[in-house]
Amino acid sequence: MVTIYDIAKKANVSAMTVSRVINKSGKISDETKKKVEAVIKELNYIPNNSARNLITNKTKILSLMVTDITNPFFTNVARGAEDKAMQMGYQLLLCNSDENVEKEAKYMEMLISTRTDGVLIAPANDSSKRNIRNLSKHGIPFVLIDRNIQDLECDQVLSDNETTTRKLMEHLISQGHKNIAIINGPLEVSTARERYQAYIDTLKIHGIPLNRNLVMESEFRDSDVSSAIHHLLELPESERPTAIFATNNFIGMSTMKTLKKLKIKVPEGIAIVSYDGIPNYTESESILTVAEQPAYNFGYLGIQLLIERIEGTAPEKARKIVLPADIHIRASSIHKIE
Amino acid sequence: MVTIYDIAKKANVSAMTVSRVINKSGKISDETKKKVEAVIKELNYIPNNSARNLITNKTKILSLMVTDITNPFFTNVARGAEDKAMQMGYQLLLCNSDENVEKEAKYMEMLISTRTDGVLIAPANDSSKRNIRNLSKHGIPFVLIDRNIQDLECDQVLSDNETTTRKLMEHLISQGHKNIAIINGPLEVSTARERYQAYIDTLKIHGIPLNRNLVMESEFRDSDVSSAIHHLLELPESERPTAIFATNNFIGMSTMKTLKKLKIKVPEGIAIVSYDGIPNYTESESILTVAEQPAYNFGYLGIQLLIERIEGTAPEKARKIVLPADIHIRASSIHKIE
DNA sequence: CTGTTAGCGCATTCAA
DNA sequence: TTGAATGCGCTAACAG
């Protein structure tokens, strides 16, 4: 392995001078600088970050913890995160928690061991708090995206769940729906709680009584909503939902699939609105009404806040960015009923 | 920061003993082992990998270089890679080259600096060879996925482009198509070359003369195929394509969009078959006939080969895994013509 | 502007 | 079974 000493010897300078040239620190004469740079190129020298980290306590490695990169929402988060990280000279480690706090904990240990400079986290659920505290205990900054955690004061990039949910619900209500079911993720996830609360609030505002039979809980990942839907369909005629509000993309997709299997027409039989976009690859295909969140910006801005925190350019007070979603009304919900 | 010396002092042993407990190396009495482990837990000690790397020359960090993580194909590659890496105790760095050799080169430098243990690469194109040689020069093992590089002997996980292309083409031919256009990626990418060659060969086998006017080149990313399609539509009636073979997902999607904009019916006006699946999220939506590659396995197996190479359990000879694709015949190509 | 010394946290080597 | 000395490659602090 080529080291700064090899460079130093060949260039007839000290190792320190080589170090200074590499880091552009201190004053170096143009002459020696050029000489050193020539040797570096000649020997194809690339600094060893491990050695550097040991002294500087900086790895220039950031980490992204998502629940599942194959969720298109998180795919775009990752892309935004990576772009900003690269732009700022950082690399990005990818972690999938699978909504599992234990797996998340294991990752956190590895990240701490790696001495990552900071972590952008979409926490599995409220119990992730312990894992995050562990990070903090080791002096590693973090920023939350998508999901917040109760009683945890920190930088966050979140979605405006209240407004967005209200818009989706009011769209359904404007179509004449009164029996609107919600198929939600687990309530220990903040986004599930907020969307549920906004669901309740919107019904109330519009004088529609809340029917607990229409409130279903599923998973945000590996969601199989068929039992929930069977349950809904077995309700007496007067309670049976004419519309379903799915609180994330996987739930929305699973709902579409299940209704198709049951040969229930969308939107005539049951209308659907869903949170999150699924990529509208070919335009001709999408029929699902969705609230599309600016996923790329979650990652991009999240990394920006994180780097500001790491490099000490952030204000001491925690910052909270709340982003709006784009509502795309499509065929799955366009059908007026009495 | 807590170090092994802090642990050693508190446990009344030497630092070396602590190191041995952590690494499960050498013989340690049960008693001291328990004592040390208790102190480690108490002080919440986590080893510093930078220090460890400096000695062992192992980072337990693997890297994945793809052209764009938002391409669903690579999203699944990443997921497979991450799963296998995690299972084997490695972390995964994510890099997007954007099909750009210079950006790829910059990443390579960072990866070398980080002393990644190995890299799983979908190279931008044949010119990536220089970047890969740079890796090798620094003793970093690598495995190619999806795309190979001419005259580069190394472990690879590739797709059976010949068989798959032939199946797609013969499906079109069986529907009566003779004027079949191909919209391809740049020929400096191996997959583009192989799919083109198989396109030519299949035509030949079936006695259909190759018409150069039906051969279009676009991009695998940011593909705007509208000019290509306009060109195809301006051909005289006798040459005008009745079917299009798109050689990757982005090209396939762009083709669908463009035809829709031009109000050309698929498959009646023009039939389409495409390489790569686009995730069939809601089942009801997909109409595109595709050859779906086992993306997850590209990542999973690629990392497996890579780790075997790193840990010295691989045979010296380069290995080449060729995976088949699943053909999904859908509406976009089901329409017999004269 | 340049060099010397020291030490980051840990594992390898050798000795006990 | 345990410990002491040494050095991985680099930079911070100081000296010149």
UniProtKB/TrEMBL annotation, chains A, B:
Domain spans labelled HTH lacI-type: 2-56
A Pfam family reported for this protein in Swiss-Prot or TrEMBL: LacI
Keyword ATP-binding in annotation: no
Signal sequence extent: none
Record-linked InterPro entries: HTH_LacI, Lambda_DNA-bd_dom_sf, Peripla_BP/Lac1_sug-bd_dom, Peripla_BP_I
SUPFAM superfamilies, alphabetized: lambda repressor-like DNA-binding domains, Periplasmic binding protein-like I
Keywords assigned: DNA-binding, Repressor, Transcription, Transcription regulation
Record protein name field: LacI family transcriptional regulator
Organism, as annotated: Metabacillus niabensis
